[in-house]
Amino acid sequence: MAPKKTATTKTATEKKTAAPKTTTKKKAAAPKATTATKASTTKKTATKKPAKEPKVKAVFQYQDLEFTEASCVKKAQAGFKKANKGVDLKDISIYIKPEEGKIYYVANGDINGSVDL
């Protein structure tokens, strides 16, 4: 009876050693295929050029006044710097009221002011 047990043990060992070899080969082959797929996808997207957005200039006209957003931002920044010397300007929001002839601003979230349009 001893020979039958050793024969069964050998086949079980052979099956255990054979299984990891085949799974290792399959795992190694799978990443290579996905890497090649990603590389080909990257090449396709790299050749496409993003569409350039056109330059935009907005000019506002109100009665006898004519002004741009950029000029209003510059005036508000200058007004802030003049009124708050030594304070760094981190962000600014402007509110243009042409009927009053004023540009109101809120700088750094809590500093309010106004300048003439």
Uncertain ranges: none
CA distance, first residue to last residue: 107 Å
Number of domain units: 2
For the sheet with most strands, the description reads: 3 strands, antiparallel
Structural class: alpha+beta
Strand content: 15-25%
Going across the biggest sheet, name each strand in turn. 3-4-5
Q: Give me the count of strands.
A: 5
The overall pLDDT average reads: 76
Radius of gyration: 36 Å
Structure characterization notes:
The protein is α+β, with helices and mostly antiparallel strands and 117 residues long. The protein has 2 domains: 1-43; 59-116, no CATH class. The protein contains 2 helices and 5 strands; from the N terminus they run H-E-E-H-E-E-E. A 3-stranded antiparallel β-sheet has the order 3-4-5, with helices on one face. Strands 1-2 form a two-stranded antiparallel sheet. A hairpin with a 2-residue loop joins strand 1 (59-62) and strand 2 (65-68). It is flat, with a radius of gyration of 36 Å.
Index terms:
117 residues, alpha+beta, three-stranded antiparallel β-sheet, two-stranded antiparallel sheet, 5 strands, flat
What's the arrangement of secondary structure elements?
Elements lengths: L1 H46 L11 E4 L2 E4 H15 L8 E6 L4 E6 L3 E6 L1
Antiparallel strand pairs: 1-2, 3-4, 4-5
Summarize this entry quickly.
The protein contains two helices and five strands; from the N terminus they run αββαβββ.
